[in-house]
Amino acid sequence: MFVKSGEDELHQSKPSSGSRKYWGLLGTGVLGGTLVLLYAVATPFVTPALRKICLPFVPATSAQIENVLKMLRLRTGSLVDIGSGDGRIVIAAAKQGFKAVGYELNPWLVWYSRYKAWREGVHHNTEFYRSDLWKVCFSQYTNVVIFGVPQMMSQLESKLQNELKVTAKVVACRFPFPTWLPDDITGEGIDTVWAYDAQTFKLAKPEASAVASNEK
């Protein structure tokens, strides 16, 4: 009868150098792939935060969407959502008959919005673009929706005042514009929505300039 010695059993229980090398390379590959995936996913979310003015993604509540649509009742034409996030405002507007467009800096949210619009059956009336809002001219839109932050509202106010036609309407959610007087307000708390007619704030601009000249 052949009996294995303790030395033979110990020798056979040890993994070979080739096996150790294989598992080492596999572990390194998995770790590297995970880090690359995390970088790819996180970068679009982190990059906006490194900009001078950050427009974070905070999903609109059902009450906010309802209030936005309430402000746009009897309105027609094109609509743009500045910082469209996951596309829920654009999709809701498209269902009401608007030709709706969303601008969003995060590519993952842009792709998701396109998929969601297709799933909801309104992809023919929606468009989503990955773009910095400060590099877009909004003069072609008759209805503008913005979920902004206080730090950007003053600069955006000047941009829209210069670019929009007098027939346009601007709807601001969560935070109002600093100097424009709203034509209508609805909702409470974080669901508050302010509506501004371009005819009102464009006519107020020369009057404000005249007052400033008289005060000098």
CA-based gyration radius: 27 Å
The main pleated sheet reads as: 7 strands, mixed
Shape type: globular
Q: Spans of 5+ residues with little confidence (pLDDT < 50)?
A: 1-7, 32-52, 207-216
User: What proportion strand?
Assistant: 15-25%
Helical proportion? 40-55%
Number of helices: 7
The average pLDDT is 80
Order of helices and strands: HHHEHEHEEHEEEH
Strand order of the largest sheet: 3-2-1-4-5-7-6
Distance between the amino and carboxyl termini:
115 Å
**What structural category do the secondary elements indicate?**
alpha/beta
Tell how many strands the DSSP assignment holds. 7
Describe this structure in words.
The model is unreliable at 1-7, 32-52 and 207-216 (pLDDT under 50). The chain has helices at 6-13, 17-49, 62-71, 88-95, 107-120, 150-163, 198-215; strands at residues 78-82, 99-104, 126-130, 143-147, 169-173, 184-186, 193-197. It has 216 residues and is of the alpha/beta class.
Task: Write the topology of this structure.
Layout: H1 6-13, H2 17-49, H3 62-71, E1 78-82, H4 88-95, E2 99-104, H5 107-120, E3 126-130, E4 143-147, H6 150-163, E5 169-173, E6 184-186, E7 193-197, H7 198-215
Parallel strand pairs: 1-2, 1-4, 2-3, 4-5
Antiparallel strand pairs: 5-7, 6-7
Keywords summarizing the entry:
16% strand, alpha/beta, single chain, 216 residues
Task: Summarize this entry quickly.
The protein is an alpha/beta fold. It is built from seven helices and seven strands.
